[in-house]
Amino acid sequence: MTTQNNPHTLAVREALQQGAGAAEKQLTTIGNDYGDDQLALIVGDLTIPEIIVMSDEYDMTKPSLISAFITAEQFSSALDRKAEEWGGLYGSLSQEDLEATLYELQENVECFLCPIVYSGDDSNREDEMLSTLFDHPHGIRLVLVSCVGRKDFHEMIESPTDRQPGHGTWQGLLTSLRQLRPKEFGEFVDYYRAEAPEGEKFIRVTQSILQDISAETRPPEEKKEAEFLTF
Length: 231
Prior knowledge:
mainly alpha
């Protein structure tokens, strides 16, 4: 249950006007004084744009406090926004330009997904967040964007093991995808193997995924215009 007139939420919002760092400092103070229950109430009150502003300012080495308290519903809505952002920004790039910015994109995706999935230090919450991620229309695609072509990726899909490598990282997400959604994991591996020559396939696959996301998240008026221009 949220309380929109919670003075602590208002204090965080006021601090956020000075930047994500100021809001994070305010959250830390409130957490120290009032505990996790109050932090959960505050995060439950935050809007999706507020959550994104704060989460984007931090990474996996030092995630925002909000990462551990975001609800599954908020996570799903935030995924909507981030998929639209990444698809629109990277989906129209040429292979050459995308390859030049791929590491930045993969790092951004990993730093957004992993803190939210893993920061709660609660196995039940982790399972809920993984399900939310994998059930989202673009969730599995974003996991794949975060890992395609990276070190250990080829070994992980060709010689998978039952161990959990890099828990809290893209390796953990990929392993969980294989364990929890074997059908979708298998379909992706088959697609990856067939998509393009070995030396180019990772960028071809990434480009294809991003183009699909971009097309599906494009505002309705832009979709109509694009359809009109094809005739």
